[in-house]
Design goal:
Helix content: under 10%
Largest sheet: 9 strands, antiparallel
Number of strands: 25
Radius of gyration: 19 Å
Order of helices and strands: EEEEHEEEEEHEEEEEEEEEEEEEEHEE
Distance between the termini: 38 Å
Number of helices: 3
Length: 316
């Protein structure tokens, strides 16, 4: 595999490719063996192809930008100039190089050991990208515990004009011993569902928001999901549960939305893993007046978006 960093915390491991700061494997002990909780890229060819954006860091935007065009401070920008395929999604940094700026290895084995890795991408600041002429430095910090993984994504506007910016993560989770998402339970602490059109773009204005009450699927069965939910209760996690084993995976975030994708269109292993994606803003936020204040990053400003994933021990 291309340049990769490996963190250890007790018997847990995190493998991160420097291309895109992309997690490849997250190994956690389970019943005497190491279980990979991430369905990541398996080789350099998959990493380069980016099919499914497996575990990709999304910045400086989340999910799709309609027609690859947006207007910011009165100027129209085209993220795909001259292209006939106008689908642009999941940001820019997932295919850009990062470098290690700080690393803290875990102390000798014990109950409280943690390791951390901070990676930085200056490519957008060093050379403006097509349709994104803004000098934003992106940092990603991973903190690994014996059963937890915390992620923090930070955007720093080092330019002299305001920039549109938002971030998120696109992980595909697998629970130990579970071959299909169909058998899993999913609970979301949400009060709002984002309504979309056939192109999965949110409807205009207030039409995009529908009230829901903590949606859940017990089990997922054959339901197809590629949708975002907001109004999250910060005191409660999104939970993926395997009733056959009692194992639960918890995703905690204090703001933003959660996007859920059942993996039905992946090039390989469809519905073998479940994407539960913490995102700072909704899809196509760059084109929505109701998101203008949220995405605005002033010169010199830093903004971080963080979340934590935990594999709960199986009850005795």
């Amino acid at each position: 595999m291309s340049a990769t960093e490996v963190l250890h915390a007790g018997d847990a491991e995190l493998h991160v490719a420097l291309l895109g700061a992309t997690p490849l494997r997250w190994l956690v002990p389970h019943r005497g063996a190491a279980w990979d909780l991430l369905d990541g890229y398996r080789d350099d060819a998959e990493l380069a192809d980016q099919n499914g954006v497996r575990n990709g860091i999304m910045a400086p935007f989340c999910n799709r930008v309609a027609d690859a065009r947006y207007t910011f401070d009165g100027v129209e920008h085209d993220l795909a100039p001259g292209a006939t395929d106008r689908v642009v999604y999941h940001g820019l940094v997932r295919t850009l190089p990062f470098r290690v700026v700080e690393r803290t290895d875990a102390p000798p084995p014990g109950d409280g050991e943690h390791a951390s890795l901070r990676l930085r991408c200056t490519a957008l600041a060093d050379s403006p990208a097509a349709g994104y002429p803004f000098a934003v430095v992106v940092e990603v910090t991973y903190t690994l515990g014996p059963r937890t993984l915390a992620v923090e994504i930070t955007g720093h506007n080092v330019g002299d004009v305001a920039a549109p910016y938002a971030s998120g993560w696109h992980p595909y989770f697998r629970l130990p011993g579970t071959a299909r998402v169909d058998n899993l339970d999913l609970d979301l602490p949400a009060s709002v569902a984002v309504r979309t059109d056939d192109a999965l773009l949110p409807l205009p204005g207030a039409e995009a928001f529908a009230q829901v009450s903590a949606p859940s699927w017990h089990p997922l069965g054959d339901v197809v999901l590629d949708a975002a939910f907001g109004g999250l209760d910060p005191a409660l996690p999104a939970a993926v549960h395997d009733p056959a084993t009692g194992t639960r995976l918890l995703v905690r975030q204090h703001r933003g939305l959660v996007h859920v994708f059942t993996g039905d269109t992946l090039a390989r292993d469809r519905r073998a893993s479940l994407a539960v994606e913490p995102v700072e803003v909704m899809t196509d936020a760059f084109n929505r007046p109701d998101q203008a204040a949220v995405i605005r990053l002033e010169p010199g400003e830093r903004r971080s978006f963080g979340f934590t994933v935990e594999l709960e021990p199986i009850p005795a």
